[in-house]
Amino acid sequence: MASHVLADRYRLLEPIGHGGMGTVWRAEDELLHRHVAIKEVRVAPDLDPDKRDELIARTMREARICAGLSTHPGIVTIHDVVREGGRPWIVMELVSGRGLDRVVAEEGPLSPRRTAEVGRQIFAALDSAHRAGVVHRDVKPANVMLLPDGRAMLSDFGIAVSDSEDKLTLTGKLPGSPGYVAPERLRHNVMSPAADVWSLGATLYFAVEGRSAFERPTNAGRLTAALESPPDPPRRAGPLRPVLNGMLQPDPEHRLGGSALDSALAGVVAGAGAEDATPTQLDVSGSLPQTPAADRAPGLLDSAPLRPAVPMTAGSLAPARLDRRGWTRVLASLLLGLLTLIAAPLLVEYLSSVLINDDPAPSPSVENTAADHANALQDAPPLPEGFVEHTGDGFRVAAPGDWSAAQEPDGLRISAPDAAQDVLLTRVDLDGATPVEHLRALEAEHAGRPGFRSITLEEVDHPAGAAARWTFETAESGVPRMCSGLLVADSQGRAAMVVYSADPERWEQEAQTRQAALDSLRRA
């Protein structure tokens, strides 16, 4: 076959890919002296004639659909269609890249920034198709091509449907790939742009995590998980987490899409630090390199550059201090894409060195001594049933037993299985301000930002020292999030903030969880 010439023009050279519909060949166009890719559609000899005709019609439809979309740089160009041996051969642009599935298998997961870059490019290609009335229906890692020049392209519109075409589907065939098919398609075979967005979200999850969001031993298990379960909590996604959460919403009416999705992905690309510039450099157990403020895009709590974090070990969180503007950078990353990282328990481990043990003990004449504060924290209310304490750097914080804790560059994060709730702990340098003054300064910086609304901000009593509580909502990445933070300072000005964050629909029903998490800070 490798010496075969189609239509006296296209010489087949070598197979470069295989799929459910046949083989893709590298070929030479002997008329224009260029290399092309040719899709050979294999038809089983014993295939029912009606199904054979359906398969051929489907292939021709793909050629027509892609030919109409080929002006977009993110979609593989169709050059020609040749009929030979009773079936069509599609002549396409030869893309000198690798599938996303291969890249991850060979090099490991992509960084959040690179994943967001790929996501923006593929979403732009999908958006172009959607505007032309075409739904792809099979967005998955194997159909995302990564080119050496950094571009990403979308391929294989083989099961795409167009508003102007018949909706053909091979009898008995799943219209897509398990783990990448939107729930509404599995339930009702609803084909819409929102379903492609869900599949893209699952694809980006794979890119940044190195595994499926619904990884199970069997295809049936993956289908069931996509139908009935939330995606597995991501571990490496960082600022991309809320974007993935928005894209993988089971209800298409609540799914992130359109300009909001593009803006959210752009925010991750612009807000990522230099440590995130290459696909394999993300290491959540290491330090956070310093990046000049000029190289960063403005975040929700933007101002000055974030100071580099001290390297962390698995058992401790280094007490790196952040000035007030640096803390705004942290919340910026958290609130940037939905309070992007405001999802979990970063604050837990910082409190040990923050509230009490960093400095020499104050004079006994000082009314609120460090010992008083330590005792106050040790006397925290008993934990609710089912809560588990997590320890870091001399302090403990509690969360429900099925939540997962993970060290990240900014601290320790504890997240619910469905990523709908989390707790964050981080250290704050008040720079001479009181807790309420510090929060009011942050509130003023946020005012007028899209999706942000301050609800309450007030001083509160706390046994460890001066404290203030702030409740607000944000939608910086296009996904709404409710947040409640408690900022506490001791008599020496050492301070830490615990932030609980949740999806709005869970806010009221999880009031007890929220309060218990905020109240749980104590000495280890």
UniProtKB/TrEMBL annotation:
GO terms for molecular function: ATP binding; protein serine/threonine kinase activity. Residues 10-265 form the Protein kinase domain. ATP binds at K39. Pfam families: Pkinase. Residues 277-307 are annotated as: Disordered. The keyword Magnesium does not apply. Keywords: ATP-binding, Kinase, Nucleotide-binding, Serine/threonine-protein kinase, Transferase. Gene3D superfamilies: Phosphorylase Kinase, domain 1, Transferase(Phosphotransferase) domain 1. The keyword Transferase applies. Residues 278-290 have a biased composition (Polar residues). It comes from the Bacteria. PROSITE patterns: PROTEIN_KINASE_ATP, PROTEIN_KINASE_DOM, PROTEIN_KINASE_ST. It is an enzyme of class 2 (transferase). Its EC number is 2.7.11.1. This is non-specific serine/threonine protein kinase. It comes from Streptomonospora mangrovi. The lineage of its organism: Bacteria, Bacillati, Actinomycetota, Actinomycetes, Streptosporangiales.
